[in-house]
């Protein structure tokens, strides 16, 4: 198993891609900390892992990634209890779809706070430990929106492009310490974030059909498929991969 004797901290671990990543890491032997502002969601992830017959274990922590001090405390507590090998900065939010100039400043700040500063806070908390240890890695969840852009989601795309380039930058800083950093860039994935967006349409089924038709595979992704990519980047299978933006988009960007 790839993650025996490995501790993985996953933000946004209470839903969607974060939950499936936590489950995947635990299945492959890891000790997982599922951190989320939604304490019930994180607890549910832990319960699902406990109920499944897997080699790893999990615990949950209620955490707002925009609170730098709280992130530092949660990461330090993990280091103290289990050590830390993999930091997955995955928590993220979207905003109401619309023209750039109509995105409220409140929405802009909310999205920047979670998607950009949340990733910054997670890296800032984990890096000193990983450097001192001389091993381990970081996986940040960016988005296809941060690679090719996403009209009507300008603030979101802005943060995700930033996450991707920030990740490359820290990879350059960390390599000499034996620490890797990569970004995963998913296309649309069937999680509560996307389901909520589709439900806002007048005809959610037609909206889903239209979305899926734009993918080479004629469907959107499953959270398990993104979790598989995150686990790959975090594993020794990717030991020579760092500073990479791994697009996982069912061929959307190939069309
Ligand atoms: P989701 O909405 O299912 O899960 C996001 C989780 O982040 C939730 O559990 C939520 O409570 C948590 N969260 C939100 N704000 C937080 C905060 N301040 N502190 C801690 N946790 C917080 O969404 P999904 O789809 O699983 O998204 C995960 C990541 O993947 C996000 O960064 C998202 O931007 C990214 N992504 C998602 C895509 C999709 O199509 N679903 C596509 C590309 C990227």
Written description of the protein model:
This protein is an alpha/beta fold and 255 residues long. It has 2 domains: 7-186 and 222-239, 3-Layer(aba) Sandwich (Rossmann fold), CATH 3.40.50.720; 192-220, no CATH class. It has helices at 16-27, 39-51, 68-82, 105-133, 145-148, 154-174, 192-199, 204-213, 223-234; strands at 7-11, 31-36, 57-62, 86-89, 137-141, 180-186, 245-248. Strands 3-2-1-4-5-6-7 form a 7-stranded parallel beta sheet, sandwiched between helices. Helix 1 (16-27) packs across helix 9 and helix 3 runs parallel beside helix 4 (105-133). The longest helix is centred in the middle third of the chain and has 29 residues, at 105-133. Bound molecules: 1,4-dihydronicotinamide adenine dinucleotide. Residues 11-12, 14-18, 36-38, 41, 63-66, 90-93, 114, 118, 141, 143, 186, 188-189, 191-194 line the site of 1,4-dihydronicotinamide adenine dinucleotide. The site of 1,4-dihydronicotinamide adenine dinucleotide has 30 residues, from helix 1, helix 4 and helix 7. InterPro entries: NAD(P)-bd_dom_sf, SDR_fam. This is Glucose 1-dehydrogenase. It is an enzyme of class 1 (oxidoreductase). Keywords: Oxidoreductase.
């Amino acid at each position: 198993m790839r993650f025996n004797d490995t501790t993985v901290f996953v933000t946004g671990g209470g839903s969607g891609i974060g939950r499936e990543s936590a489950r995947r890491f635990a299945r492959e032997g890891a000790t997982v900390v599922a951190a989320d502002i939604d304490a019930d969601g994180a607890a549910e992830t832990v319960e699902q892992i406990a109920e499944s017959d897997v080699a790893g274990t999990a615990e949950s922590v209620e955490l707002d990634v925009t609170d730098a001090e709280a992130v530092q405390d949660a990461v330090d507590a993990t280091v103290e209890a289990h050590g830390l090998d993999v930091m997955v900065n995955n928590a993220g939010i979207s905003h109401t779809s619309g023209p750039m100039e109509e995105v409220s400043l409140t929405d802009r700040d909310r999205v920047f706070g979670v998607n950009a500063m949340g990733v910054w806070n997670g890296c800032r908390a984990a890096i000193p430990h990983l450097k001192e240890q001389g091993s381990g890695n970081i996986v940040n969840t960016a988005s296809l929106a941060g690679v090719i852009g996403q009209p009507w989601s300008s603030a979101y795309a802005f943060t995700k492009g930033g996450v991707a380039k920030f990740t490359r930058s820290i990879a350059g800083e960390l390599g000499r310490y034996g620490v890797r950093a990569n970004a995963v860039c998913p296309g649309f994935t069937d999680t509560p974030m996307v389901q909520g967006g589709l439900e806002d349409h007048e005809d959610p089924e037609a909206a889903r059909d239209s979305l899926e038709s734009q993918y080479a595979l004629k469907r959107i992704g499953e959270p398990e498929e993104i979790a598989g990519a995150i686990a790959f980047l975090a594993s020794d299978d990717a030991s020579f991969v760092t500073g990479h933006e791994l697009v996982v988009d069912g061929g959307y960007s190939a069309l």
